Amino acid sequence: MKPFLTLILIISLYSNVYAQSARRYTISGYMREDVSSESLIGASVYNRANMAGTSTNQFGFYSLTLPAGDVELAYSYVGYKTQTISFALRRDTVINVGLTGSTLLQEVVVTADKTSQIERTQMSVVRVPVAQIKAMPAFMGEVDLIKVIQLKPGVQSGGEGNSGLYVRGGGPDQNLFLLDGIPMYNISHLFGLFSAINADAINNMEIIKGGFPARYGGRMSSVLDISLREGNMQKFNVEGSVGIVSAKLMVEGPIIKDKTSFIISGRRSFNDALAASLISLDNEDEGINEKGTTNYYFYDVTAKINHRFSANDRIYLSAYLGDDKYNSQNRFTQDKYGVLYDNRTDEGLKWGNGAAALRWNHVFNPKLFSNTTLSYSRYRFNNWSEKDNKITIFHVNPPVTHRDYYKFLHDSGVEDWGGKIAFDYLPSPNHYIRFGVNAIHHTYNVGADAVNRISVSEEEENGESDTEENEESIIGVLSKIYAWEYSAYFEDDIKLTERLKANVGVHWSAFGVEEKTYNSLQPRVSARYLITPLLSAKASYSRMAQYVHLLTSAGIGMPSDLWVPSTARMRPQTSDQLAAGLAREFKDAYEISLEGYYKTMNNVLEYREGSGFFDASSTWEQKVVQGKGRSYGMELFIEKKRGSFTGWIGYALSWTDRQFDELNDGRWFPYKYDRRHDISIAVTKRFGKNIEMSGTWVFGTGNCVTVPVGIYPGNDLIGNMQDKWNNIDEWWWPIYGYTGNNNKWNLQPYFDYGERNSYRMEAYHRLDLNISFTFLNREKWGEHKLIFGVYNVYNRKNPFYIDAEGGYIQDYNSWYSGNPATWLMTGTIYYKFSQYSLFPIIPSFSYHFKF
What we know:
Elements: H1 2-22, E1 24-33, E2 44-47, E3 53-55, E4 61-67, E5 69-76, E6 83-89, E7 93-94, E8 97-99, E9 125-127, H2 130-135, H3 145-149, E10 155-156, E11 166-167, E12 175-179, E13 182-184, E14 188-189, E15 194-195, E16 202-208, E17 222-228, E18 237-242, E19 246-256, E20 260-269, H4 271-278, E21 281-285, E22 288-310, E23 313-336, E24 339-365, E25 368-393, E26 400-428, E27 431-461, E28 464-477, E29 481-495, E30 500-513, E31 516-532, E32 535-546, E33 548-551, E34 562-565, E35 573-585, E36 590-607, H5 620-623, E37 624-640, E38 645-659, E39 669-670, E40 677-687, E41 691-700, E42 704-705, E43 708-713, H6 721-726, E44 744-747, E45 749-753, E46 759-760, E47 764-777, E48 782-791, E49 801-811, E50 826-836, E51 842-850
Parallel strand pairs: 1-7, 1-8, 12-17
Antiparallel strand pairs: 1-4, 2-3, 2-5, 5-6, 9-16, 10-11, 12-13, 14-15, 16-17, 18-19, 18-51, 19-20, 20-22, 21-22, 22-23, 23-24, 24-25, 25-26, 26-27, 27-28, 27-29, 29-30, 30-31, 31-32, 32-35, 33-34, 35-36, 36-37, 37-38, 38-39, 38-40, 40-41, 41-47, 42-46, 43-45, 44-49, 47-48, 48-51, 49-50
């Protein structure tokens, strides 16, 4: 603590000495939206006299130190009208500015925006305005911020309908998701089809793919930083929508006008009601009676309160809660061939996030701003399965009844308590210094399992029963793993010359677990050189460390994926990334950027061959191996930001590989999500104030999968047939693949797999369209909007997964004769590959309102 306080004291002294010696004064304050007082994040402030400028932080605070004299300050933000203030600077001055939103984007003056892509030191950053998110075509009418981010080059989905992010060759666990500064572990609903964050509650969002500033740490591939809205301090607003999947409602307003505000946003799907009517099963045919129901729903609630104590102090309380619940019940009975089957099944999943944060902003002086945060975050996953199978055989004497009851419960998750303090220090327009410390206490529940099984056999003869019962109860409770994670950082955004600017910093982190402590020192540097006022060259290097891993056995990001920590045996993941590129702007609001990157990864995790989530024969550490990864490529991005017609074209060319000593004979192999070509086109066209059309088209090289290259029949069942025949209560036709012909049996085959991920599925491409009609009468009826959309317009059958099917048909020349050898005469091997698709063409409709 002493060195930290000393650093603050030195900075304060330096600030005073610097100001007095150069007769410089500081202009500071907040930039907000004039109607709602919502913070404008990343807004631009610059002096037109000497073009010295700065930008607002994530709370809308800015600080600009200038020489005494006449100044002409321009306050600008994309989507808002620029405001200019001229005065004589004679002392430190506080100016709070409220900008007015423009009706149309073409009215906005952005040509002198000093925080443009050309001017910024940071590279590999994607900023997505909320209005742009809402304008894009939405799957089933559900606006999804993750889907829009996946349209940017270098960011891809894992597959059809997947809300996971795979950034520059990284996995879904290598992305740091921050919601108002709170780390989140799962950001998807409906098995990955929708993101878990309601777009109506978002103020600002950006994703960083490389050139990471030192203030971020804990993940290797990207940072998705989402800031929630603060709530309108002037008046009450109600906003909501109803679509074919869910309904949502947002309410905001002042608690104490100009001092305290709130916002609460909720969303709930109603597909459980649809599932009850559409997926319910009721089948009666040839002695079969089958009834079943499937129920699924999700919800999320986001809330925030902010209160201003004084001009220098403000607190925020943020909270999030979201869950998904799936349940399926089924009963099957059949009376056929003297055998009565009675099977009951009840199984389900429940998973979700909970998070809360208390933040305090304090302005020490016009140049020093602090943010102190206490946070809580948890992710949980529960899985249960209960099966009760009863079979009675009447064609034997005496009749035999066999009951097999099985119950399985699984519970896992992560719980974090954290605290951090961060400082922004702006001594002059040539320096923007950030520093801070962070501590998190982790509790990992890596799997608490309970398995209970009871098997009962009964024989009845002359009214008497002979019962043989076998009860097996297995309870596996793995002790929780506790860990502490610490970090500290220092960075400075330095203007070295009029053309050269750099962001230089270092991030240090430590992770203590199981009496083992890992330390990592991570240098970060980004540089920008202005070739011309509208053309810049950029380069960056960053090292990242990650102490958490995601064990995933399903390629679509199922909630059964297990979060586990680094341990004494499992080392942390690390990465090094180099990137370089060019960025060019045109005065008519076109922007072009070209970037190339090379990234190496160490200690990435993968399941061993034959291991998976449901393998209970070993611990999770015994199921996995650690290896290396590499990814390199280039990304081209062309965007038109201004006018009634806007949009972008993105293209990424990349190679991504993995290497594990224990897999694929130690040879490098393509990562499953190695995607050679990735193209996205997104356009929006506005017709006046009331009609807006948008469309997206995406193309991606198919995912890599491992498929069989050969097949041969299994013979392990043959030798046991005689035993099974003699023990009639254990013999069932389905076990041996009875085909319905007394002379044909389909035995389970063995597949011979080739090189890992040596086969590539078909390319993925899809067109989505959207049109919205807005009806405005704000004084009386508010704003109403009807949105019609079509997903997968030309009904492309995109690959979801590939299934290998095969078998060995044994032909028998006679029915059972007492000698099993007479069964084995001739046979035929067959196998085939089947591609399964997920979504056909899907029309959608939604109604939005705002009062």
